[in-house]
Fold this protein.
Amino acid sequence: MPFTLATWNINSVRLREGLVQRLLREEAPDILCLQEIKTPIDKFPLEGFAALGYRHLVARGQKGYNGVAILSKLPLEDSGDRDYAGLGHARHVAARLENGVTIHNFYVPAGGDIPDRAQNEKFGQKLDFLTEMRDVFLAERPERAILVGDLNIAPREDDVWNHKALLKIVSHTPVEVDHLGAAQEAGAWVDITRKDLPQGLLYSWWSYRSPDWDAADKGRRLDHIWATPDIANAGHSSRILRPVRGWEQPSDHVPVFATFDL
């Protein structure tokens, strides 16, 4: 059963409901994983998405912050969530497809502006979140699973516009990259985007602070699609929809896509 999956930090699903509908109409992924939905689930605008064929929803939300959702044309079974680092945040949810594949949708904490846990509690929370991800994957190696989301780390030198300039900037510091790498290694996760697009600069996020994001092009690849080794070879056709950053009142992230023949 081939299916196409997309992940997108929407930065408020209610504010950008129209953009989500546009993406669903124009690109029609079978599954769309959203992060930072910023709404309790009883106020999630499912009706409009259901009218486009996306009748299945597994989500965790909270008022004004965080929140993760999996919208699907395909039937989903809720597979639970985990409160990583004990933050009490809606940052993870899992759903199981009828073919037995489990999708994990993550929103890793951004980590604040100072890359030092002694000075910045949020940075410590981010590292603790990643450490618990590692420990969970070590305790129970995932199988037939896909992990997606805004992981808030650009791990490779070509995942940022300037590697040297960003070494002390949160999202690309060596300690964050090491923590993310440890979590990835613990689950033997394969980076599907980079399996398909192994060379060259790739970005999925451009700051709101740039007066002309397109011309400056100071991007980072913060959004990821991973898969376990038993299904990684089924993943293909990865792409990042850069033009979405130029839509009216956009998120600062754009959707990342992959197709799986399973």
